Design the sequence.
């Protein structure tokens, strides 16, 4: 099989031909049909995640078909359409797992980091992290929903916002363009916030009923004109650009952060207490959440905007994602 490997941190992808792997007990082999490229793939490329064993094939937005079953697997059949996202395994014994909270498992495994992921024609995954892919979604469409999709969908559905509430999505990019669609499909009054006017037309097409240009408008003031946002879903990485939305939250409003960044957000207690606002961060979700994301997307018409490239062009696709030029998710096809 063909795989695109990171041989060692900060080196270009290397095209390799490897033996097709055999699934162990409780595992399945997936024939990968599409794999989305996520910004977090840089953790493998840069060696920024502790303990990665190289060479490693990245990729945690994997859509394909079940190709072979390891011993003891009874939950899926060969030929089933299935996907794997960030949640690639849990130990079943830690404090989180004992509470059924598998996404926060202390020994969580991640495809493309803990083991070879979807930048490959075949991969092995535990059977209990597979999510069924509805027929209405192509493999290319399903792939980005398994990280970018689940992250925004699962965060929003747990945000406490109810139909009719004001939900703003900060950033119209890989995560944001999905966040807008989910917010609208869930019945929220959806506001998009981004720099400049370039993305306004698209944001409105995706379902935003208002658009705020954060460069030239007072974001807090504009949100307060709507009565304040019950939830702001932040998909961006700049703390400085996120901070102003705190002033635009409604009473009991929530800043919901899914854009993984090391950049601090300024939270001033004296300005927050009076309106009981809160900040919450959210990590994607488990296989069950992936299944819900895919089903909801299929039934509500939410689709990622993608650009596909063949597996062999992983370097070019990855570089395009990293440069910010992707509109909006790059997907490798096999
Ligand atoms: Zn991801
Ligand atoms: Zn655990």
Sequence:
């Amino acid at each position: 099989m063909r795989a695109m490997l990171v041989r060692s941190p900060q080196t270009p992808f290397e095209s390799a031909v490897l033996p097709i792997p055999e699934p162990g007990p409780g595992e399945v082999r997936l024939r990968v049909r599409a794999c989305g490229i996520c910004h977090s793939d840089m953790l493998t490329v840069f060696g920024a995640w502790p303990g990665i064993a190289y060479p490693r094939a990245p990729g945690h937005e994997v859509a394909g078909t079940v190709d072979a079953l390891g011993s003891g697997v009874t939950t899926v059949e060969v030929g089933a359409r299935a996907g794997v996202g960030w949640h690639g395994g849990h130990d079943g014994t830690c404090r989180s797992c004992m509470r059924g909270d598998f996404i926060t498992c202390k020994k969580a495994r991640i495809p493309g980091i803990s083991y070879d992921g979807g930048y490959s024609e075949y991969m092995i995954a535990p059977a209990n992290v597979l999510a069924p892919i509805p027929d209405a979604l192509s493999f290319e469409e399903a792939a980005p929903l398994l990280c970018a999709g689940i992250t925004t969908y699962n965060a929003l559905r747990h945000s406490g916002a109810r139909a009719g509430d004001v939900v703003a999505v900060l950033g119209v990019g890989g995560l944001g363009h999905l966040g807008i669609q989910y917010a609208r499909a869930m019945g929220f009054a959806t506001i998009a916030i981004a720099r400049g006017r370039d993305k306004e037309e698209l944001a409105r097409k995706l379902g935003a009923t208002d658009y705020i240009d954060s460069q030239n408008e007072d974001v807090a003031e504009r949100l307060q004109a709507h009565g304040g946002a019950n939830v702001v879903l932040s998909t961006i990485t700049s703390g400085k650009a996120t901070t102003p939305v705190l002033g635009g939250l409604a009473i009991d409003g929530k800043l919901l952060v899914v854009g993984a960044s090391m950049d601090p957000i300024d939270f001033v207690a004296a300005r927050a207490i009076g309106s009981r606002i809160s900040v919450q961060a959210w990590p994607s979700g488990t296989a069950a959440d992936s299944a819900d994301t895919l089903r909801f997307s299929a039934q509500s018409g939410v689709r990622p905007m993608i650009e596909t490239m063949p597996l062999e062009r992983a370097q070019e696709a990855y570089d395009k994602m990293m440069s910010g030029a992707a509109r909006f998710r790059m997907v490798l096809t096999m």
User: Anything to note?
Assistant: The domain at 2-147+285-333 is CATH 3.90.180.10 (Quinone Oxidoreductase; Chain A, domain 1). The chain has two domains: 2-147+285-333, 159-281. The pocket of zinc ion (ligand 1) is lined by residues 38, 40, 60, 86, 147 (CB under 6 Å).
